[in-house]
C-alpha cells in the first residue's frame, strides 16, 4: 500500500505542472510495491508427458497455429476440410482438433479417436459436431459465439443496399458489356423497416447499424430482450414479417428453426420485400423462396448459407449438391455468397485467439468454461511455489456414488481445492491435491480410472 506522509503540508498541490498526474504516480507506486507479491501460475503438463498433437483444418488462423506451437504442441495445419472417411483414417493419432463449418465430426469419428481430448469449432456454430457423442466420450467442444458478430452484421448492411439498388444485376450487366442505367424498383434503405429474427449478438449489432442508416428496426425473439436504440420487439414472427421491408435471419439451427421461413411465412411478408439469410442453410425452405421470387411477391434475396455446401473451394455448387441450385442461380436480384459471413481478417484472428485459448486452457489446466456440451468447471491456478501440487481432472458418467469413490481415493492427501458439476449424462470433477509423491501417482490414477463410471482421468503436474 502507498504510504501516507505524516506531515500534512507535504501533500500540498504543486504550483508547477509536471509531466505525470497524481494518478500516474499512484499507479506506478502500486505496481512497484506489489510486483513482488504477484503469484505466478505454474505451467501444468500431462502426467504421462505425452507430446500433444493438434489437427487444424479449413485454413484456421495462422495466429492460432503459432500460439499452439509456442506451447510445445505438435500442429498439423491444412487449408482444406476433411471428409468423414479421411477423418476416420487420420483422427486416431490426435489429442485435439480444430475445424470450421465444413468438416463434420460424427459419432463414427468420435469412436475412432481414442486419444481425442477436445474439439474446437473456430466459428459460431457447432451443429457440424455430434455434441452428445463427444460429451459421452468425455470430449468438451468449444466455439467462438461472439467474435465474428460485427463481420456478419456489416455483410447484412451491404446486402440491404445491394438488394434495394439491384446492384449485383447492374454490375453483372456492365461486366458483360450492357449499359442499363435505371431507377425503377431501386430504393434508398432510409425510412424502410428492417425485421430482425433473432436479437442476439449479431442481431443487436445490426440493429444499431441499421438505425444509423435511418431505418426503423423491429425484432422477434423467443425471449424478451431489452432493445438497443429505438428498436422494438414484436410479439410474433407473423407480425414482423407483415411489417418489414427487409427480413434478416440470425437464429441457430434447431428442430424448431428448420424451415421456419417456408411457403406460409413467405406469403405473410410484404409484397416487394426482401429476405436475407446469413444464419443456417436449413432455416429457409429454398424451393418455396424460389417460387415466391418467381411470382414477384419477394423482390430479392441474399443467401450466404445453404442446406448442403461444398467441402472445398473450387467444388461445384450445382444440382447434385442441392437439387434447386441451377434454378436459384438464374433468379433476378438474388445475391449468393459462399458462407463468408465471418470471413474477414479481423474475425478470423479473434476467433483463432478465442478458441485457441479455450483449447489451451483445457489441455493445460482442465478448464471447461465456455464448453457448449459439457459441465463448466474451473479452479484457480496452481501457483509456481506449489511444486508438489497435482491437478486431477476426472470425467465420469453422471450417476450416484462417484464423488464418494473419488474422495476415498484422494483421502490420503490434502485436497486443496475441488469443484464438480454435471450436464446431462456427463459429470466433471477437478481437484488439486498437495504433498503427493510422484511414485504414488500411477497407483492413484489407476484407482480413480478403475471406477466404473470413469470416462477419462487426467493428471496435470
Automatic annotation (TrEMBL):
Pathway where it operates: Amino-acid biosynthesis
Domain (D-isomer specific 2-hydroxyacid dehydrogenase NAD-binding) ranges: 159-341
Ranges for domain D-isomer specific 2-hydroxyacid dehydrogenase catalytic: 54-373
Pfam families per the UniProt record, alphabetical: 2-Hacid_dh, 2-Hacid_dh_C
Any GO molecular function: NAD binding
GO biological process terms, semicolon-separated: L-serine biosynthetic process
Keywords, alphabetical: Amino-acid biosynthesis, NAD, Oxidoreductase
SUPFAM superfamilies: ACT-like (SSF55021), Formate/glycerate dehydrogenase catalytic domain-like (SSF52283), NAD(P)-binding Rossmann-fold domains (SSF51735)
Family: Belongs to the D-isomer specific 2-hydroxyacid dehydrogenase family.
Protein name in the entry: Phosphoglycerate dehydrogenase
Amino acid at each position: 500500500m502507498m504510504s501516507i506522509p505524516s506531515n500534512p503540508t507535504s501533500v500540498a498541490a504543486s504550483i508547477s505542472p509536471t509531466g505525470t498526474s497524481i494518478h500516474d504516480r499512484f499507479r506506478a507506486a502500486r505496481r512497484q510495491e506489489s510486483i513482488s507479491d504477484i503469484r505466478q501460475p505454474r505451467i501444468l503438463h500431462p502426467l504421462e508427458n505425452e507430446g500433444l498433437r493438434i489437427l487444424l483444418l479449413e485454413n484456421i488462423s495462422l495466429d492460432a497455429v503459432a500460439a499452439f506451437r509456442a506451447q510445445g504442441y505438435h500442429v498439423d495445419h491444412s487449408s482444406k476440410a476433411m471428409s468423414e472417411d479421411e477423418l476416420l483414417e487420420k483422427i486416431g493419432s490426435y489429442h485435439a482438433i480444430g475445424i470450421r463449418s465444413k468438416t463434420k465430426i460424427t459419432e463414427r469419428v468420435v469412436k475412432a479417436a481414442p486419444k481425442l481430448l477436445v474439439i474446437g469449432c473456430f466459428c459460431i456454430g457447432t451443429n457440424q459436431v455430434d455434441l452428445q457423442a463427444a460429451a459421452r466420450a468425455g470430449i468438451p467442444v468449444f466455439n467462438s459465439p461472439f467474435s465474428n458478430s460485427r463481420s456478419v452484421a456489416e455483410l447484412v448492411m451491404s446486402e440491404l443496399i445491394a438488394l434495394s439498388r439491384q446492384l449485383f444485376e447492374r454490375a453483372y450487366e456492365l461486366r458483360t458489356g450492357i449499359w442499363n442505367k435505371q431507377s425503377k424498383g431501386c430504393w434508398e434503405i432510409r425510412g424502410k423497416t428492417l425485421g430482425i429474427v433473432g436479437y442476439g449478438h449479431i442481431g443487436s449489432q445490426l440493429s444499431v447499424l441499421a438505425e444509423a442508416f435511418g431505418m426503423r428496426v423491429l425484432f422477434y425473439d423467443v425471449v424478451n430482450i431489452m432493445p438497443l436504440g429505438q428498436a422494438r420487439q414484436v410479439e410474433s414472427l407473423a407480425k414482423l414479417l407483415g411489417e418489414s421491408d427487409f427480413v434478416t435471419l440470425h437464429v441457430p439451427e434447431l428442430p424448431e428453426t428448420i424451415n421456419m421461413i417456408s411457403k406460409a411465412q413467405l406469403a405473410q411478408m410484404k409484397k416487394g420485400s426482401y429476405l436475407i439469410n446469413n444464419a443456417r442453410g436449413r432455416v429457409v425452405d429454398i424451393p418455396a423462396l424460389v417460387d415466391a421470387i418467381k411470382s414477384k411477391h419477394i423482390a430479392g434475396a441474399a443467401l450466404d448459407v445453404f442446406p448442403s455446401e461444398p467441402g472445398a473451394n473450387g467444388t461445384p455448387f450445382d444440382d447434385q449438391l442441392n437439387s434447386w441450385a441451377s434454378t436459384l442461380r438464374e433468379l433476378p436480384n438474388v445475391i449468393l455468397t459462399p458462407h463468408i459471413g465471418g470471413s474477414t481478417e479481423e474475425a478470423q484472428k479473434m476467433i483463432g485467439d478465442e478458441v485457441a485459448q479455450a483449447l489451451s486452457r483445457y489441455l493445460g489446466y482442465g478448464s471447461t468454461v465456455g464448453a457448449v456440451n459439457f459441465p463448466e468447471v474451473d479452479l484457480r491456478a496452481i501457483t509456481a511455489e506449489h511444486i508438489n501440487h497435482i491437478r486431477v481432472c476426472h470425467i465420469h458418467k453422471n450417476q450416484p456414488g462417484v464423488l464418494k469413490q473419488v474422495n476415498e481415493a484422494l483421502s490420503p492427501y490434502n485436497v486443496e481445492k475441488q469443484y464438480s458439476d454435471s450436464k446431462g449424462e456427463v459429470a466433471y470433477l477437478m481437484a488439486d491435491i498437495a504433498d503427493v509423491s510422484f511414485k504414488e501417482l500411477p497407483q492413484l490414477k489407476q484407482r480413480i480410472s478403475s471406477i466404473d463410471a470413469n470416462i477419462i482421468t487426467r493428471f496435470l503436474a
